[in-house]
Design goal:
Length: 370
Amino acid sequence: MSGAVIDERLALIWMAHAAEPADRRVGALVREHGAVEAVARIQAGRSGLADEPGLRARLAHVDPRRALEQAAGLGARIVHRDGKEWPTQLDQLGDAAPFALWVLGAADLRLTMLRSIAVVGARASTSYGEAVARDWASAFASQSWTVVSGGALGIDGAVHRGALASGGMTICVLAGGVDVAYPRAHEQLLHRIADDGLLVSESPLGECVRRRRFLTRNRLIAALTRATVVIEAALRSGTTSTANAAVALNRPVLAVPGPVTSPMSAGCHALIRESGALLASAPSDVLELLEPLGSTMEARSRAPSRPHDALTEQQARVLDALPARGSSSTAELVRVAGMAVPEVTAALAILAARGLARPAGRGWEIVGRA
């Protein structure tokens, strides 16, 4: 298609085929001159990029119009920077932002990402980590949050299944083409995500996964979402790279603690200790950060108040002075609590009204397990 007149949309799709993900040099070229001019400069051999011959060779084998047709034939679409469906939060990646994304699924990418949480973790996960991932993803999805992960074995798979089980929205950001099932063991899961959620990738159709693209993919997960939750992670892993990308974007990172003997929790502990990640022990910890009012109400329902929570200090002292078994006279309570008779009498009246204490003969006794 060399020499053909193209618009910015087609030029962006062309560049998405030619450049490696997160290539800041190519990103700077497009930022300075626009995608149409960047394509022209590469084709003419005057881009100034060291790897220009490789880029030019890739451009020669791509027809962006044909790419659009191929995507449509699979029921997918190509979302580019200037399109209405583009999630503008990706622009915060600067010159490392993708030029276009391949999307498979019916939902609108930009709208579903407005309330989104990334939940990621180790491939070599433990049963503890997978249980947390399923339960938390289900909790987030049930609160109308889009749950985003990477589709890998272990924690990622548990995250997607948890969100799907609750009937919520989940998005899988892939390191290969949206038409390439990887890992193969998750082929059926990826089909389910495409049916009920979205598959997203910056790699063109048919592209197999490559080691480096797992890392560049992780920056998309961090940039697309409002917060990143790490369930399990080794000290050096792709999962921690997602967290680091979120930190670089000033997005909240929360890590779930685990057994100190588990290597799969060592990365989470290091994130909390060294990178300023917040410790999360329940889904409400994450939701409280993202929507404080709703989360506070949820936290209160999760830990209901008890009758003695609102006691004054004097009332609590009298309650503590009551014996676990048997009864105690008012005089004895005055001595044990170290308070005046009127104060003890007033406190006993309140305790009785709240069902925490009651008269017993000539004294007072505690009620139940107060």
